[in-house]
Amino acid sequence: MATQPPSSAAAADLYETASQPDPSASAAGDAYTFLEFNTQGDDFEYPDFPELSQPARSAPPPPAPVTSSASSSWPAPPLPPDALPDADLAPQDSTPPASSSSPSPRSSASKSRAAAAVADGLAAGVAALSFEEPPGAGTGDDGYDYGKGDFVEHACRYCGIHNPACVARCNVPSCRKWFCNSRGNTSGSHIVNHLVRAKHKEVCLHKDSPLGETILECYNCGCRNVFLLGFISAKAENVVVLLCREPCLNVNALKDMNWDLSQWTPLIDDRCFLSWLVKVPSEQEQLRARQISAQQINKVEELWKTNPDASLEDLEKPGVDNEPQPVVLKYEDAYQYQNVFAPLIKLEADYDKMMKESQSKDSVTVRWDIGLNKKRVAYFVFPKEDNELRLVPGDELRLRYSGGTSHPAWQSVGHVIKLTAQEEVALELRASQGVPVELNNGFSVDFVWKSTSFDRMQGAMKTFAVDETSVSGYIYHHLLGHEVEHQIIRNTLPRRFGAPGLPELNASQVLAVKSVLQKPVSLIQGPPGTGKTVTSAAIVYHMAKQGQGQVLVCAPSNVAVDQLAEKISSTGLKVVRLCAKSREAVSSPVEHLTLHYQVRHLDNSEKSEMHKLQQLKDEQGELSSSDEKKYKALKRATEREILQSADVICCTCVGAGDPRLSNFRFRQVLIDESTQATEPECLIPLVLGVKQVVLVGDHCQLGPVIMCKKAARAGLAQSLFERLVILGVKPFRLQVQYRMHPCLSEFPSNCFYEGTLQNGVTANERQSSGIDFPWPVPNRPMFFYVQMGVEEISASGTSYLNRTEAANVEKIVTTFLRSGVVPSQIGVITPYEGQRAYIVNYMSRNGSLRQQLYKEIEVASVDSFQGREKDYIILSCVRSNEHQGIGFLNDPRRLNVALTRARYGIVVLGNPKVLSKQPLWNSLLTHYKVQLSVDTYQCLL
Ligand SMILES: [Zn+2]
Ligand SMILES: [Zn+2]
Ligand SMILES: [Zn+2]
């Protein structure tokens, strides 16, 4: 019997539940999907959301009166209505039009805007300030031809608009390009667009602009990151103060000034500079300007990275910005497969390298410690700018001291062995001598990029193509999507399908084990909490008992490998956990199973010489070259011996390419979390001679993280599991969930698993005794907490935060703690790194209970919480805006992950007006309303 070709209905089903990024949507490429670029999910811009038809969104404010004493201060802008304490969320559009002479809303209040000498750097000519356009500007009467705008130095590099009041210069020395404050065809203004894409953050206004040549900076600390800057009106006359959100808005000294810090408003609103700062070009100006699409903007920004002087005309040149060949469902042969995937892996590797190597930090403060292995450990904060850099244990960093009067220059590389909750990095240094432990300040840190994982993927694809024995013929054709004769593996099936040391299997788990043992290729879908790890361990147990040699067990992440290794080991099988050399100093919950631990603790007199040398090496830091040689040979032999005697070897997918396994063959391979691995990553463990493969995962949860958008668009973000499902391989679904309170599993089951998820726990088992949290309906531990605060772009320019929502997260956390929940039971999750960092800071500053309690609470991104659970989850949705949509909250898989982490209860904070425009969120809101049969929009506190 031949494998059925996929029916279009099956494929459509998959798209509905797993929801691949829509390639057409990404081609249309709204510029600002870029703000969330660490996952492929960002291509889900809700189609009918952005309102792009109105070029000019805010009208210029009325001219502000300037007093003669204000020569060093800024005139106060009219406050947008939403800056008022009692104001509802009103769009910026309602700012009074230029012709209006109505007073600013606040001037009628007693706290009227006021003078205090403030922002420096303002020319004395401010008295002549006028928001009127200079005569002739923008009318074309000046004889200026807009089509040739690029000849004027300060013309917008995108569209050519050059009205001095409407443009600003990027102040990054290597850039210095000018951009206007119009949106054109994109959802953000050109200047903001450029800053986000180029990752530039400083801006200077034009000398002929109303405010004169001014670099925007914080009045208090001089910080120039425009994404951090906002303004407040001082309580004297006509003056505004620019202050940064972190730290100055929270500096106590400033609280004593006569300023109302609660009125702080970001300078960038709705992805546009406030119009009193940089005017929005008139509709007429915009119509006459060059029309540039988001896609062209992407491309020209890409070009500027290598050629800063490139023009839009250069985009037309051949060879510029070729899109890579996309992945397909079926491949002729493994060479075609390699030809498609190799360039994608190369793109991702180049992007990863570029991004990591640009992360150097100076002025780093270090504290020193010494590890148990007597190695030097440096602790320091290596701030991650945004989602992009995910430092993980095992990463290599270089610590440098450039030298000074007291100490000569020094440097050493080391491996990250730990990341503390306080965002501190612990780096174990390779050097043991000459470490400047007497110094603490003035260090620099660079990322040392390693190509290992990418090289191994490329290597696996090559092996797949050239080595006929790399995989069985059946699997070769199956993976390439060819139609192959259906095969059954004739094994004597075990009498019972459970395994010693594991919990009893339920019916769907038994069926899964049974079916897997008879097939050369199987997919197991494990929805949240359905006992995927136990089932996998039972499968591995029975495979190992079949006597076909060692079983290889992999997963893309170290955490998943550790969990599975532990479960398999509890069946009594001999398990070796192979770790990357760079991670040997990283503590692991299965330390005793690791190869490096077993090598050190092998109790065998023959090994005594190796142990002697090891001891010497530990004490002296190094060995003589002949001893080192001898030591290495002995160690290799010992490693080999331990690996060979194992029943099961566990490692990451990339770890399967470790040279220490190069002479091993594995007929049976199980890959857990395979839906989070790229295809070439999955291939690494498979090309070691596989005849039977089990892929475990859930394509209704988040897929692999691809940093390079081009590679993601071309399909690198699709896992092998998913492609096989589309090809018609039916995954075996585990159906009983043991995690969530039944009322929490209902919505995910209906929405993502066709209602098939059954509950293995009862409401009673999820009733926490002694906790009196004020749930709106006591036996339904969930609710939606309505938020109306607005989102802001975070300091990195590439993420978001929402301050009011963060404040309410703290209130909910405090309520949980007061009601008897302990910190380790609570998880705060949010899709945005900007919000994650802000919540951590906010709780430590403003939490009303003991600080330590808040420190112990895990605040993490939704993506990093995949695979994990907490008793109580607080989900902060962040997005709240008039025009920008909900970005990667649009990805149904992210919503699925977010909703399925909690065991006992969940609180969702979000703006229902914005969220409900997306159908899935709309049904979630409806679900909450119906389930709670109370007004969902009630506030809790
Ligand atoms: Zn720039
Ligand atoms: Zn422009
Ligand atoms: Zn500041």
From TrEMBL:
Main location: cytoplasm
Composition-biased stretches (Low complexity): 84-114
Region described as Disordered: spans on this chain: 1-114
Transmembrane region(s): none
Subcellular location: Cytoplasm
Keyword hit for Zinc-finger: yes
Keywords: ATP-binding, Cytoplasm, Helicase, Hydrolase, Metal-binding, Nucleotide-binding, Zinc, Zinc-finger
GO molecular function: ATP binding; DNA binding; DNA helicase activity; hydrolase activity; RNA binding; RNA helicase activity; zinc ion binding
Catalysed reaction equations from the record: ATP + H2O = ADP + phosphate + H(+)
A cellular component annotation (GO) from this entry: cytoplasm
Signal peptide: none
Chain segments carrying region C4: 218-248
Record-linked InterPro entries: DNA2/NAM7-like, DNA2/NAM7-like_C, DNA2/NAM7_AAA_11, Helicase/UvrB_N, Helicase_ATP-bd, P-loop_NTPase, SF1_C_Upf1, UPF1_1B_dom
GO biological process: nuclear-transcribed mRNA catabolic process, nonsense-mediated decay
Residues covered by the Helicase ATP-binding domain: 513-645
Domain (Upf1) ranges: 148-307
Entry's family note: Belongs to the DNA2/NAM7 helicase family.
PANTHER family associated with the record: DNA2/NAM7 HELICASE FAMILY, REGULATOR OF NONSENSE TRANSCRIPTS 1
Stated name of the protein: Helicase ATP-binding domain-containing protein
Provenance organism: Triticum turgidum subsp. durum (Durum wheat)
Lineage: Eukaryota, Viridiplantae, Streptophyta, Embryophyta, Tracheophyta
